[in-house]
Design goal:
Length: 289
């Protein structure tokens, strides 16, 4: 398809949630079904809910693409922490491969530049050759192959590691773990997890050594060691959404997860642009929230 010239880009508003959510569901379902994978968004309602959250959250910036007054795609920049998160980006299947995605990416990256984010991260579906190429062309580098894991809750304790609910008073200690592992905190996302009641932390040797905003598709986790993450994973009552994300290069934790009955749903790629520090500890990325 040739590039669309009269495309209009504008900031998204809560009123766009329904149209953007429907396109998001259709776009992900289309590409997933073509490759025989389950869609990331189980229904249009699920996608509308996720887009509503982004479009109403003061620290998310959404950009919408319109053609002849009709919404044909959207992109989201998560501005809650030091490194911005990008996605979901989706384009109406009827106008894909005509550079709408490229324009939506450039708009989000302009915004990140304006707001002086030192880096941007995203998760890409590994089977999607088009998005991998588009992101690479725009400057993103591949950092990690990531597996999405799903299965029955493990329901076990790791001796010496205590898991409890995280509270606002724990924010500083949790952020310190994240800074030690990633070189920056993800405090804005953690605060949301605390307010949602999904955030948990792990204590070992009398101090906080790891936390999770949720062991889920939309949650991230950080631990000084694999044992901290094992304690958090084994404590989870469910793995929300499509499953939780685990860097495949962490073979020890991957093998432990497999030995506990978890199964891979799909492989994704963690990509970054700008500041990125090789993690100095254990971590589970989040698809977004
Ligand atoms: C991913 C998505 C947002 C991209 O938007 P799009 O408008 O279709 O993409 P664009 O036309 O802007 O860009 C695609 C680029 O990939 C290139 N491309 C496509 N297939 C390719 C391949 N197999 N190898 C290399 N490059 C390829 C195109 O040539 C184009 O580059 P160009 O502009 O330099 O010519 C859109 O396809 C979509 O909504 N997909 C489903 C949902 C999804 O996967 N979202 C992303 C989650 S990670």
């Amino acid at each position: 398809m040739t590039a669309i010239v009269d495309l209009r880009l504008r900031p998204g508003t809560p009123a766009d949630a329904e149209a953007c959510g429907r396109i998001c569901h259709a776009a992900f379902r289309g590409i997933a079904e073509r490759h025989g994978f389950p869609p990331d968004f189980v229904s249009a309602e699920h996608a509308i809910e996720v887009l509503t959250r982004a479009l109403t959250h003061p620290r998310f910036h959404c950009v919408v693409a319109e053609l002849d007054g009709r919404i044909v795609g959207s992109n989201v920049l998560d501005e809650r922490s030091t490194i911005a998160g990008l996605g979901p980006i989706t384009v109406d299947p009827a106008v894909q491969n005509a550079r709408v995605g490229r324009r939506l990416m450039l708009a989000a990256l302009d915004r990140a530049k304006e707001r002086a984010f030192p880096g941007v991260r995203l998760l890409q579906a590994a089977y999607h050759t088009r998005s991998l190429s588009l992101y690479t062309a725009l400057g993103f580098d591949v950092r990690e192959p990531v597996v999405t894991l799903q299965g029955a809750p493990i329901g076990a304790a790791i001796p010496g590691y205590t898991v409890r609910e995280a509270h606002e008073s724990d924010l500083e200690a949790c952020n310190s773990v994240c800074v030690a592992v990633h070189g920056h905190d993800r405090g804005g996302e953690l605060l949301d997890g605390i307010h949602l009641g999904t955030a948990r932390l792990v204590e070992h040797g009398g101090r906080i050594t790891g936390y999770t905003t949720a062991i889920a598709f939309f949650g991230h986790s950080v631990g000084e060691t694999d044992e901290d993450l094992k304690a958090l994973i084994a404590n989870a009552r469910e793995f929300g959404g499509a499953g939780f994300l685990l860097p495949a290069r962490n073979g020890a934790l991957y093998r432990w997860s497999l030995a506990h009955g978890l199964r891979v749903v799909q492989v994704m790629t963690l990509m970054t642009l700008g500041l990125y520090n090789e993690p100095a500890g254990a971590f589970l990325p989040s698809i977004l929230y």
